[in-house]
Design brief:
eleven-stranded mixed sheet, 5% helix, disordered C terminus
Amino acid sequence: MTVGRLGLMIAALALGLGCSACNTATPTHDANRRDGAPLYRFQLQSPVYTIDKLYSSMQGPSTVEALRLGGESEIEELVWLTGYRAEVTDATGNEPLSAEFMCHSAMDTRDDRYRETFPTAMSLRGNRVFSVDQGTLENTLPEGFGIPMLSSHDMLVATQVLNHNVVADPFEVRQRVTVEFVRDVDLQQPLKPLIQHGIYGLTLVEGPDGYLGVTPGSAVEDRHGPGCSLAEDVGHPGGLVLDRHGRRFSSFWVVPPGRHSYHTRVTDALALPYDTDIHYAAAHLHPFATSLELFDLTAKQSVIKLKATASDEGLGLADVESYTSVNGRTLYADHEYDLIAEYDNTSGTDQDAMATMLLYVLVRDLEFRKPDGDPTKQSTWARITTSALLPR
């Protein structure tokens, strides 16, 4: 399967970013604590964006910047990411502005060292770690959980703004992004490791049926769900998905006026190696979305349903629900799953749509392999949760 996605675009844009381009500001902490440890914050500001016309979703000014969680420190240590948020400000970065200008902000790992360090952590979809947008301005993992990361890993932060409503003289905005984490050496006991596992809504653009990756004619609706609906591709370069059977799908499609349900079989996208639990979930949706639901086709029951609320004035989303739980919801490796996006386009004209659910799932038997390095620094490495360390 060939996939064109924002994460892949970010990686392509960032190939020219060397270490000298990394934001190496020093992380700070105050009296706030998390899981009994000091809570560190790494904050950066995007470049100033000029809004001089209407910009729909995914069409406004954007940039990708590199950062290193450890700042200028040469000590390589284990940290646990616990939260991420972004807000729109004026050009000074001091005055908050309306979230109506927020398209999205996302943080990815830049290189493959994450997989080398945590080889059993399943797969980050497109290297994505966190992602927020107009309806969900922050991701906060539940207490007791975090995403393990090395302080030396290079990260990428993508920011983009939009403007659905304001017709005025050009004005300037920027985004202020905050990454939160704790140091493993400060914890009395390690956190439970989560990994972001993203699944995407798709529509069928061309092909024999709407079942991604399933041999044509072999799908059974009671088992595989109804399949993807036909819809027009918006034409964004990151939206096209091809499968080995010659089907063309889009992750960025046109919604005509009225109510519409879009189904996507996501069993293969999940590719679960074992049963696991979802402890946090968020959604990326566009205006006129009303909900995004992960449905267990085998058990015939909903797993998670996140509702969206439209803005009171103008085009946009005021809020999209997120899910957080210490106990979690179970995903079964041998079950079939359907992702259902509901849109109610009341505008009277065609609109664009996306539907992404970010699942933060428990990693079982996490293996932590220390990279080669100065043995005198080994004291900065600590334990990880669910299995013994297996150093090289």
